[in-house]
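Figure-free illustration: sequence to structure, shown twice.
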Amino acid sequence: MVALVLLPVELADAGWLSDVFKSSSKPDKSPKHAASPKRAATAKPAASSKGHGAKFAALSPAGLNPSALQPAPARCDPSKFRIVVDVGHTAESEGAISARNVAEFVFNRRLAQRIEEQLKAGGFAQTKLLVTDGKARSSLVRRVAAANNLPADLFLSIHHDSVPDKLLENWEFEGKKSHFSDRFSGYSVFVSRNNPDFKTSLSFAELLAKEMKALGLQYAQQYTMPIMGRYRHPLLNKETGVYSYDELVVLRKTRMPAVLLEAGSIINRDEELKMGSAERRNIISSGVTAAVREYCDVRWAILGPL
C-alpha cells in the first residue's frame, strides 16, 4: 500500500544518480500512493509503413477509417526513453503486511523487477529500477529527488494494496496470529492533480488501467466508500479504476508524468496467492509494457507490434 511517508533512495544503476541517499524509517500499513513529474517526450520522425501493407490490408475490412491506419508520428524513441520503475517502500519500512505475514516490499520488488525485465526486452533499454532504503518519511523526499535528478521521462511506482486497520479480521496462519480482509480485491491506478504534468500523467494512467482491464483484471472499488475514511479518494474513471491522490509526495513532487499502481490486494487471502505467483507478475508486466509502448508510440494502439 502507499503510505504518506518519505523514503531514502538508492538506484539499482548508480550511473543514473551521482548521490545515493540513505536514511531510516518504518512502514505505514494503511493504503498508499505516489507522485508525478513533467517531462517532454523526444519527437521522432514518423516511421515508414513500407513492408506492413499486408497488416494494413488485414485491418481495413474491420471497418477502420483509412486515415486511422496511417502511422502517427512516434512520440519517443524507446531505446532512449527513460522509465523509472520505483519499488514502493523499503526493507526498513516495509509497507503493508500480507494475510500470510509477508511484507509488501517483497511483493513490490519482485513485481518491479519483472516489469523492468519486460520493458527492457521490449526495447526500453533505459528502464531503471529505483530501490530506496531507510525509514519512511525522509526517504520519500529523497526518492523524488532521485527521480528528478535522473531525469526520467516517466515515473511508475509499484505497490500492493491493503485496507485500513479497522477493516482487518483475525486469523491464524502457520501457528501465528495474522490479519486479513477478503472483502476487497483488485488493482487501482493513482495520479495527482497537483503534478506538474497532470494531463500526461492521467493519459498514461488511463492506458495502464485499460490494459489491466483488458487482461481480465478488476479494479478495487473501495476507495470511494465512506468506510475508507481518510483513505477515500476521488474516482476519475469509473470504467477503468483511475483515482486521484493529490497530495501524495511521489506523485505531486516528481517533475515528470507520474503514476502509482496498486497491483492487487495482499491482505485478501485469495488474491495474495495470485499476487505471489510468477504467472500474475507476468500478466501485469505485460500490461505495463503494452501501456508504455502505446504511450510512447501511438501507432501501437492501432497496429500492435510491427
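We now fold a second protein in the same way, so the two outputs can be compared directly.
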Amino acid sequence: MRGRYSAMTLALASLIPFASSFAADTKLVKAVSDHFELYTTDNDAAAKAALTHFETVRGYLLKSLHSADPFTVPVRIVAFKSSGEYAPYVPKGFDLTTNAFSSTNGDRAVIGMSGLKKEDYQSGVREYADLLLGRLDPKMPYWLKLGFSEFYSTLRPENGTIAMGAEPLRSFRGEVSPDFNMEVMFSLNGGINRNKGAADFYAQQSLMSNATTSSTSNSTPNQFAKGDAMSNMEATTTVNYPVILWQLTHMLMFKREYSSKFGAFVQAVDGENTDAALGQVYHQSLVGLKEDLLLYIKMPAHEVVHAKFQLDKPMTPQVSQLSAADSAAVLAELRAAK
C-alpha cells in the first residue's frame, strides 16, 4: 500500500510543470450563489447545476440539524473537468485517489473537486458535510463525523424532496471485511491522511500509545494488548473504515432497534467513550453491535426515504468568466491549500 502511494506521489510530481502551464493559460468560469462561490474549467451549465445541488443540500442539512450556517463567508469550490487537471492540486497528505478534498484558512473553507458531473457531487458534498459538522460540533468524535459525512454525501434532491439512505456510488458491499476491529474504528482520529480509506485513517502513534498503556496498566474494554495492536495494525491496512461507517450510520438511523434512540446516543457519545454511550443508551456491547452490523451489511437493499424539502427562494447564480490572471490566482491559492 505504501508503495502504491509512493508511486502515485512520483506520478503527481511529474505533473507539476503541466500544472504551472495549465494555470497560466486557463480561464475559469465563476458562478456565485448566496452561500457558495464556484470556479471551474467546466461550462456554465455544469456550474449552475452544481451550485443548485450544493445549495439544496446545505439548506436541508441546516434545517434537519436545527442550526444556523456556521460559515461567515461563502464556501469556495474549485472543480475541474478531469482527474488529470485536478491531480496536481491535491494537497500533500491527502488520498491521491480521492475525487475531492477540503481545507480551511481562517474563515475561508475550500473544496477541490475532480469533476462536476452528477456522479462527482457525492465526493464534494462529503467534504462540505465534514467541514460543516466540524464547525457545528468541534468535539464530535471523528468516527461519528465521518459516518455522518458519508451518509449525507448521498443526499439527492428529487422533485421537491430530498432522498436519503441510498448507497454511495462507490462499492460499499464488496469492500467490507468481517475482520474489522470496532475499537480501532471508534478510535479513529484522522491523522494527516484523513481522506484515506484504510489504516492511515487513524494515527499509528495513538494506536501504539494505547498498546503501551495497556501493557503497563489494568486492561479495560477500550484497550488491547501490545501484541494485538501490532497484529491489528497489519490486519486493518485493508479495511475501508469509511465504507463500514456509512453502513453503521445507516443502521443506527434506520434500523428500528437503534433509530428511536439515535438522538440520545449522539448526545451521549459526544461526552463519553463510544462503548460507554453504547451501553448507556442501547444496553449493547461492541460485540453485539458488530454482530448486528454484519447482518445489516448483508441485507440485499437498504432503506431510502424521501423528505419534502425545497429552497425558500429560487436559485439565481451569477456566472462570469475570469481572466487568465485572475484564474491563475485562484488556482495558486488552491495549490497552497493546507
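Summary for the second example: The chain has a mean pLDDT of 81.
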